Amino acid sequence: MSNADPLEVAKFNDVAARWWDPESEFKPLHEINPLRAGYIEDRCGGVAGKRWLDVGCGGGLMAEAMAYRGADVLGIDLSEVAIQVAQAHAEQHQVPNLRYQLTGIEALGAEHEGQYDVITCLEMLEHVPDPMAIIEQCQRLLKPGGDLFISTLNRNPKAFAFAIVGAEYLLNLVPRGTHEFKKFIRPSELLSWCRAFNFELQDEIGLTYNPITRTYKLAPDVSVNYMVHVRKDNP
């Protein structure tokens, strides 16, 4: 728990039981998950047979999506309720090649060093005290040439207006208090941390929401919600 905010963990424990309800506060995640999963699969050139780590897996939306695509997936999270929900859903649906563990990334230890082909860390960095340390651990656990996908929120006035005022207070897309603006991360900051640990940028993409049609799409606009694909240097 050294790189975790107990209040953030408690916040997700309180709502995790509803993770797989597509009409709950997790509805946006259900709607964007196919978009992001397809993007990640395309960027990886296919995921079947790859060893995958999903950091901050929550209830398992991305972990299950990749397991169904043939990856060998380990999902980790510090929310005990989220892990219980993820495990129960995977067992109920007999999802292949999928395991969960209640742990932080630091605790995986040296025995996992250089073991993973792909790591996903989605909507997680803006909830931890030291996001750069998470990137360092991802670098340690990835194989040379391995892929890392990170999604988070940009820190600027537009992101405040859309992700907090709009999403939390006007449109009620997510519960109020889900995010703290000061924890949002500019792409320039995120990429500087990645470069510090020998990652090379492969691509970046934004996620936009149309409140009229109530639909999401991937787009070049990274001003609010965005994802980067970086690759560990292959010496």
TrEMBL record:
Assigned keywords, A-Z: Methyltransferase, S-adenosyl-L-methionine, Transferase, Ubiquinone biosynthesis
Alphabetized PANTHER family for the sequence: METHYLTRANSFERASE (PTHR43464), UBIQUINONE BIOSYNTHESIS O-METHYLTRANSFERASE, MITOCHONDRIAL (PTHR43464:SF19)
GO terms, biological process: methylation
EC number annotated for this UniProt entry: 2.1.1.222, 2.1.1.64
GO molecular function: 2-polyprenyl-6-hydroxyphenol methylase activity; 3-demethylubiquinol 3-O-methyltransferase activity
Entries under NCBIfam families matching the protein: UbiG
Annotated pathway: Cofactor biosynthesis; ubiquinone biosynthesis
Keyword Methyltransferase: yes
Reaction equations catalysed: a 3-(all-trans-polyprenyl)benzene-1,2-diol + S-adenosyl-L-methionine = a 2-methoxy-6-(all-trans-polyprenyl)phenol + S-adenosyl-L-homocysteine + H(+); a 3-demethylubiquinol + S-adenosyl-L-methionine = a ubiquinol + S-adenosyl-L-homocysteine + H(+)
Top-tier EC class: transferase
Positions bound to S-adenosyl-L-methionine: 36, 56, 77, 122
Protein family (similarity comment): Belongs to the methyltransferase superfamily. UbiG/COQ3 family.
Pfam family for this entry, one: Methyltransf_23
Function summary: O-methyltransferase that catalyzes the 2 O-methylation steps in the ubiquinone biosynthetic pathway.
Tagged with keyword Transferase: yes
Protein name listed in UniProt: Ubiquinone biosynthesis O-methyltransferase
